[in-house]
Amino acid sequence: MRVLITGVTGFVGSHLAEYCLDQGHEVAGTFRWRSRDENLSIVKGKVALHDADLRDPVGVRKVIQAFQPERIFHLAAQSYVHASWASPAETLSTNIISQVNLFEAVREAELTECRIQIAGSSEEYGMVYSDETPIKENNPLRPLSPYGVSKVAQDLMGYQYHQSYGMFIVRTRSFNHTGPRRGDVFAESNFAKQIAEIEKGLREPVISHGNLDAYRDYTDVRDIIRAYVLSLEKCEPGEVYNIGTGNAWRIGDMLDTLIDMATVAVTKQVDPERARPSDVMRLEADSTRFRKATGWEPRIPFETTLKDLLDYWRERV
User: Domain count of the chain?
Assistant: First the structure.
């Protein structure tokens, strides 16, 4: 099939491109001029690359018309929660307007058989009370960041376009996912990079961190991409599905696990700059609906994911 991945040079996009290529699909992807060079080189020569800002409707229409995709995985987004506090307008514009342009381009091209997956986020749930975990899809959405608000808008837009125009759109809400190639602005990857730098003698043996008492449900990116592919094969259009392991890790315990893997002694230190105006304290998925629909199960233990992430940074610092 012809598979289009928006944000193909991103963390998830590059892994998904490789997976789809292995499945024998023809793959195209969009990227922006400031996309990560390393991940760009991973897919270059294997994927038809389109330099396109999805906020530009003309550019999006050209990509859709040229490639005529049968499957679209919409991953392109401003995905860093902390950055959304500094640039809320840019986050909302990038995430919402880009998706409007994508949907309209597919409609204009009359690609009635095209299936679209929207990569939503557990951040849509936001304020989750203790009696609401594990979180089901019908839990109230109380986003606590501009990023979370933008993902709610994308999510509901997917529902609206399915209902209004009959488009085959599956909404997924993936909980935290990580692994090799994870950007260093995200906590677990930043910790791993700091450890790698300490081991090489490039920084003092002290890890800077923010809030360590939040809990997150981590899935390996290589399990997540399998889930995304299954979502367009097995799930019902218009519906929403949580994707996660169902096991929440305390951030501090995750950091301690990484420190235990270090080859040198490391201590910890709070960095006030890493604090957020408000934080989601516990995100833990009930992915029963998705597992029943697809048969998906995570395969990679989180300790393995963390080791692979740390080794990734050891090769690069």
Answer: 2
Domain that holds residue 146: 2-177+220-243
Percent of all residues in the chain with a pLDDT value above 90, rounded to a whole number: 90
pLDDT of residue 42: 84
What is the tens place of the pLDDT at every residue in 174-206? 999 999 999 999 999 999 999 999 999 999 999
pTM (predicted TM-score): 0.95
Whose CA is closest to 79, among 154, 164, 2, 171? 154
Domain contains 292: no
Same domain, yes or no: 207 and 164:
no
Is the separation of the CB atoms in 78 and 59 below 8 Å? no
- Tokens linked to 45: 């020569």
DSSP track, 41-100:
HHHBTTBEEEE--TT-HHHHHHHHHHH--SEEEE--S---HHHHHH-HHHHHIIIIIHHH
More confident residue, 234 or 279: 234
Element (H, E) at 172: strand 168-174
Give the domain CATH number at 38.
Answer: 3.40.50.720
Give the CA distances from residue 11 to residues 99, 183, 306, in Å, rounded to whole numbers and listed in that order: 19, 7, 15
The residue assigned the tokens 């960095």 is 271
Q: Is 27 in contact with 47 (CB distance < 8 Å)?
A: yes
In a domain, 106, yes or no: yes
Q: Report if residue 256 sits inside a domain.
A: yes
Residue 146's SS3 state is helix
For 138-184, how does the pLDDT look when each residue is reduced to its tens digit (9 = 90+)?
Answer: 999 999 999 999 999 999 999 999 999 999 999 999 999 999 999 99
Q: Who contacts 69 (Cβ-Cβ below 8 Å, separation ≥6)?
A: 2, 3, 4, 28, 111, 114
CA atoms 170, 172, 178, 183: torsion sign: positive
Check whether residue 137 and residue 6 sit in a common domain. yes
Looking at the domain assignment, is residue 294 inside a domain? Answer: no
Q: Which two tokens stand for residue 44?
A: 């270059």
